TrEMBL record, chain A:
It comes from Rhodoglobus vestalii. InterPro entries: ABC_transp_permease. One of its GO terms (molecular function) is transmembrane transporter activity. One of its GO terms (cellular component) is plasma membrane. The keyword Transport applies. The chain crosses the membrane at residues 23-43, 49-69, 100-122, 129-148, 168-191, 222-241, 253-271, 278-296, 302-323. This is Autoinducer 2 import system permease protein LsrD. It is a multi-pass membrane protein. It holds the Pfam family BPD_transp_2.
From TrEMBL, chain B:
PANTHER family: ABC TRANSPORTER PERMEASE PROTEIN YPHD-RELATED-RELATED, AUTOINDUCER 2 IMPORT SYSTEM PERMEASE PROTEIN LSRC. It is a multi-pass membrane protein. Its main location: membrane. It is found in: Cell membrane. Keywords: Cell inner membrane, Cell membrane, Membrane, Transmembrane, Transmembrane helix, Transport. This is Autoinducer 2 import system permease protein LsrC. It comes from Rhodoglobus vestalii.
Amino acid sequence: MSETVTSTSRGQWIRRLTGHDAVIFYILISVVVISMVSVNFFASTLTVGFLLIQVLPILLIAMPMALVIVSGEIDLSVASTAGLTSATMGVLWRDSGLDIGSVIALSLLVGVLCGAFNGFLITTLGLPSLAVTIGTLALYRGLALVVIGDQKVTNFPPALNAFVLSKIGNTGIPVMMIFVLIVIAFFAVLLHFTPFGRGLYALGYSPQAATFVGVRVGHSKFWMFVATGVVSSMVGIFLTLRLASAGPDNGTGLELSVIAAVLLGGVSIFGGKGNIPGVVGGVLLIGTLTYALRLAKVPETALIIVTGGLLVLSVVAPSVIAWSKERIRLNRLHREVPGQSASGETSA
Amino acid sequence: MSTITHAPAVRRSSALKRFFTAREIPVASALVVLIVVTYIINPRFLSPQSSKDLMLNATIVVILAVAQALVIITRNVDLSVGAILGLVAFGTGTVFDIFPNIPIVLVFVIGMVFGGLLGSINGMLVTSAKVPALVITLGTLYIFRGVLSSWAGSKQYFSGDNPKEFGNLSVDTFLSIPIITIIAVVITIAVAMFMSSVRSGRDLYAIGSDPEAARLFGIPVGGRVLSAFIACGALTGLAGVLYTSRYNSVGALTGSGIELDVVAAVVVGGVAIFGGSGTVAGAAIGAVLLATITGALTATRVDKFWQQAIVGVLILAAIIIDRVVSLRRARKLRVDEAKDV
């Protein structure tokens, strides 16, 4: 405190180091360090591999979901899109006689269509995304059942199944992570370094204002939903190959985990606030904590409570902090105003 | 349905008009069409046994939908209802396990108080944190479910563990309507009357259409929202007790995933997801419609796999209809205002 640093740059640094996503990373690092010290078998390449393979679907979908929520919308249909993709992939592979490459390409098309349908209903018809995607959540999962029934398709090329689970050398990091990093980089650049991304913040903050400053609101929203659709499809394909089984129920319940992780990562559900590093931190935090506690033989039930508790805490804490800051500020005002002797410097 | 009886005896045309523009009408007619068409294809659909099953299957979701509608009308949502239902259902089993001779009425009271307490946790978090209920109740969904799993573990209570007269609630009928269905109907009517004619009920609509304006107008927004959550929890608790009576077993997974069905029923029933409009009667009819589809598909021998897809289409249809109606109404208002000038 005694040193004098130029107040603006110091303020910026303090803000950056005490921001929500920074806090998430501090917690994440502490969880990793504590687990490495206290949990048996945590500090191993095997852990890295299992952990990453497990968080991979959430990490992938969290990227476009972060953009959607930043723009003030939500997409609950992601897990159902993954399920429909998985079902389509299974049936195509079993019945169409196409090679696996074409099957995967066609399955990705499912995501494009699902996302475009959401986008059409939300932007062209102007319907609320929460309601629309609750509807398509049921619809896409239902179509998955219609497509494949209660059967499973399991005879995918073993080489491909093995590839999905393969690791980079001895590091334990799944090869798939390279692909995930590309997706993360894509969405990070899109959100933080392009006019399109800045437009999403404006859109989340106030759609009217965004329209005035020239953001093509409908256009932006539409492509966001296509993006979540495509990424959900990728996850559907990944899950199918990882489990070596295509079925209608792949990815069930994923939507709530994704949204929990995104919100924990500091994206405001009101829109207009949040960033990609924070979201990555949020996903990794939930994933690591769950994995470490599981290794420490904490019962599964406690893990669910921890996830929920983290989520509630992460949204309630900021308003409690803001409230107490305001109280302190008011108290200080009350103390200073009557005397009029205290100058601003004492409180700085 | 209540709108017809409540319509004042003004000109007949306007009463008729009100009837046809009521929000419950599209969903109620869809329900009637569904029942009639299914009956024509397979008359056994309305045999005494099948219609009893139909009513029993709808009962729990109807109560949950009425409860959820209260919260959604205030522009909030409660995603934790499935977990609350599970907790209360398992709690009911436990109460009977510990006190086998406890009066059944007392069990209902305990269930509703328990549910109300859980609802008040949601309500207090929502009103104190100024964060959308969607996020808070997503969190409490995990927490309550986690608490239930650690409480129940792998333990399950079966219908044989409960007193016979408790189980009979969902077997016995009055005028060929199952007792628990009558409870659901009474609840629906009571809440509908409360919402349409009691001041604090009307306040919920005001809060849902514009919370800021409601606050300026002097409505205690926080208190009202809190009580909506408590009421939702208490009614969900009631549904939990009835669940234990109706189904063979309750355990850690009871009610999981039901929250989306309930929200779907409410939306299909014409309650706007962003608050301020819709009726609990509509929500109840929406729940009956969704429950009836299952039976109808079986009766008409349609592949059961279509069921969920149809539910999805219904939800989308409901919000599109809602959108079209509100757009038309807004345009009409503008035209009327222009005429007045």
